Model the fold of this input.
Amino acid sequence: MRRTDIIFGILIVAVAGAFAVMSLMMPWYGSEWGIIAAPGLVPLMLSILLLITGLILLLRAVFSKSFYRSLEEQAGDEAAENGCEKQDQSEKLNKEPAWKRIIITIGLAAVYIFILMGRLPYMISTGLYVAGFILAFKGGGIVKSLLIGAVTAVGVWLAFEKIFLVVLP
Amino acid sequence: MKKGIFRIVATLVLLAVFASGAIAAWKPAKNLNVIVPWNPGGASDLTARMVASEMEKPLGVRISITNTPGGSGAIGTKNMFEAPHDGYTLSGNATNSIVTYQAMELLPNSHKEYNSYLAVFTPNVICVGADSKIKDIPDLLATMKARKVTVGSAGVGAGGHQAAEFFKAATGFAYTHVPYAGGAPAVTATVSGEVEVVMQLSMEVVEMLRAKQLRALAVMDKEPLEVEGYGTIPAITKWIPNLPTVGSYFGLFAPKDIPAEANQGIIDAFKVACNSKAVKDFAISKGAKPVCIYGAEADRISDEAASLICWVLYDNGVIKTSPEKFAIPRAK
Amino acid sequence: MSISAFIIEFLKLMTPQTVFNAFWATGFGIIVGMLPGLTATMGVALLTGLTFRFATDQVIVILISVYVGAIYGGSRSAILLNIPGTPANAATCLDGNPLAWAGKAGYAMGLATVSSAIGTFFGLICLAIFSPMLGDIALSFKSWEFFVLAIFGIVICGNLTAPKDPLKGWIAGILGLLLSQIGQESIQAYARFSFGSIDMTGGLSLIPVLVGVYGVSEIIGVMKLPVDYTVRTKVARIIPELKDIFRYWKTIIRSGVIGVIVGAIPGVGEDTAAWISYDFAKRGSKHPEEFGKGSYEGLIASETGNNACIGGAIIPVLTLAIPGSAPAAVLLAAMWLHGIRPGPLLPIEQPQFIATVTAIFFLATISMTLLGLSFVRPLVKVLQVPRNILMPIIFTLCAVGSYAINGRLFDVKLMLLFGVIGYFMRSNDFPAAPLVLGFILGPMADENLRRALILKNGSILPFFTRPICMVLWGMTLLVIISRSPLPGLVKGLFKKNPAKAA
Done:
């Protein structure tokens, strides 16, 4: 938690800084109302707030050992209370690294949205995505995956294009 | 002699074939889609819905309406241009909006790239809250002479703001412009007393007028406007004779380069819609005038609107680049 | 409006055609609400188009039924999948989903149904009796009040976050506020942070962000677990035990009142109503630590609040022709299209219309309750579907939902981006709720602050002297003080001393 908090702290400070700089580059005096209606006013205030809170997070992560110790104690207490079955099971059967699954999930989605959607007719791109997903996570063989993919794609298409009258990509 | 007759008959037959081909009604193969780049309930949305519903029968297909608000209507309009230019994707908007997109650098498309099918003309009406101390135009002029009055609008560069700029140009009185996110909030703010004056379209104020929440001071037109359920709104020219008519045409738009037969098919269905009782009643009930303008005349209206509006906005610092760059000449 | 007028109007509705329309429209609304990304606003807009040629009285029945159905329907996906079907149900996820994991999905759905019904009923009573008074609220909220209300809403974020680490909640909230500033702002039409792209000029829409942060991140999180984890749910009892409802009667009334008032405020809708109800319920509860872990009270607060808001939102529509929320705005447009003229003249021109609307509400509540309670068992089966198959289907629905609202592919890409951001945030204890709430309230805060300054030439005095503003500041301060270290420090001082003294 401490390490990720440091990373997050840095990221947040960077984002806040970027927004603050961009806000300052907006026109401040050009309009008929002057500075009170400047488009950068509220973003600047918010960026500064975000910068401050991000810094607090970062400094706390770097310097405050006691905070993280008390967090771990609390987490320990909670786990004892709830019996946290989910985590136990996942620790035991942790054959595949979790990271791989996350990347595959995001990757498949990215391929669907950025590559397939819009270029192929909706039913084909959606069918491919669903089938690909099921195959990748070994939810079924090729036939089953394609079948479910097809049913999903056609079902959604029918519902949205014909009944809801919504144009699909 | 026989050869001659044969030639005449052949020509007549050929002519008949061509003619029937030309005026054969365009039968769309799938549903049409009208993108309204504004929130539901606004003037563009209501007009588009009414007209589209009357066009369904002559065209023989359903017409679905999609609301894609944002960017003063530029985003939805962009979607229309990005769809295939086959006549199946239209947009529901107003002339006064589409002529500003290029000059305000929201879209690269000039107003000359649209085919307009205009169904309704709605003039701007100068209104104040029902319990305002300003009773009529002379009162308003006197108040504006003494101090800056707050005028609400649907946003910078939008209809109500354009009207206020025209008013300022004709009278010389400055005002405090208070922008809102659309016509409806601007009208509501006048009703609640947050702003003193609003110069939005008649379609947007008519319900509030009938409900006695607003008082109409004048219509920005040469003739008075009859609003059933409210009364007659006097013409602004009674007090300010040199103010041009300020109003907006609402209707459907399509990219200019759609196939000619699609264009004709749309025009035919459009004419049916405009002449329908539903659309006419709708226009009149909203304090607007039903019209049926398309083709060259609509293009002329676009050009005129562009000249008037873009230059007024540029002269008052709303548009930063001179409209000359977009080949929009000053109005005479 | 008298009871007899209500009864007469209700009896008039008892025709086969009307009842049929109410039922299918409510059912359609529930489905629209359930699908992530499809909102009540969209449902009402879709049916406005489809029913264009229907008789006016049927149209009103259909549209109100869809509205009620959709706001309730979102609770189903919130409970079963931890994905709110509409923004109004985001608060329902917090307690609804833990209940589902604890094997009580059926009961949770029954509770949500009954709470929604009670909320809708409360809303319609307020509509019937307090219409004129509540309608005036709509006009007394001006730019200053909206700004302070936005601040109040944002400060609540601190309370809604994981009690372990409020700082992260604040960060999420401020980030949400900041990101909502992207796009063309409504004061000067200046495109902020747009990097020259017209899509960015339109800003980041709420639905893709909501679906991404809740839906896609949930999908990623579920796929991360190595074991196909299905919950053994015994659907023993769906209809909640009366004692569970009566125990929380205070919460129900409180959430109902909050829902109606928030609804009556123009532009603030069911999503904000649910959060404020949830927050106040947690604050007033005897067991606040249970909130977020499967508290019945939390679930009741959220669903009662968002449904009561419907009644509240329709009040200004009828009395002033000003919509109280986004779906109410579409309802108003539909009324105009069909020649109904809501507004102050309504009691004079069509005096029985308010009674008619109240009766329609009642009919919609009944159909919602019946449909809701009957379709619990089949839906709970959804939890049994292996997630390798369920997740891509849900993702597909999320993608369609994000696309359908505005018709831009950009929104779907945004959804994925926020899905990834949301996943990393949530797995590091940054709560999603304040991010979404910041998104909703950001534009409101920004516009109204600057417009209020324009109206009074830069003076900030009215923010502190206007009566409603003062009330809202007071409530905000109360929230801040209760969350700050102050009470803790004070208590700490007293704790140390007894040890010394002894």
